[in-house]
Amino acid sequence: MSRKEAVLLVSRAVSILQVIYVLMEVTYLPVQFMSFFHHVNRASVLDTPLASDAFYRTYYGVDIAFLLVRVAIEVTLAVFFWNCGPWIERVLLPKEEPGQSA
């Protein structure tokens, strides 16, 4: 197996792991949306909103936003590793310097 094939294999494996992480993260979305909408729907125009409801609306809103950012970053990394450019090749398996041995 050549150096380039080994790097491509490892890079694709890392990419597949990133896709698995994305799928795991996406499974949290329904629960987060349910919690967010639960606290959004508790607000009433006739009643003063509770401070805890406002806190949880903000909390779950920020939580969903960061979850979506994590998913976007992981998808970007998966694509980046799948394409396996020269920078990834240098990071995963740097060339040995002449006169340097393991």
How would you describe what is shown here?
The chain has 102 residues and is an all-alpha fold. It has one domain (3-92). Helix content is 75%, strand content 0%. The radius of gyration is 22 Å and the shape is elongated. α2 (29-41) packs antiparallel against α3. It is built from 4 helices and no strands. The longest helix is centred in the middle third of the chain and has 33 residues, at 51-83. The mean pLDDT is 85.
Search tags:
mainly alpha; 102 residues; elongated; 0% strand
Q: How would you characterize the largest beta sheet?
A: none
Amount of beta strand: under 5%
- Radius of gyration, CA atoms, in whole angstroms: 22 Å
Uncertain runs are none
H-E string: HHHH
Q: Compute the number of structural domains.
A: 1
Number of strands: 0
Helix content: over 70%
Shape: elongated
State the end-to-end CA separation.
Answer: 19 Å
Class computed from helices, strands and strand pairing: mainly alpha
Q: Mean of residue pLDDT?
A: 85
User: Number of helical segments?
Assistant: 4
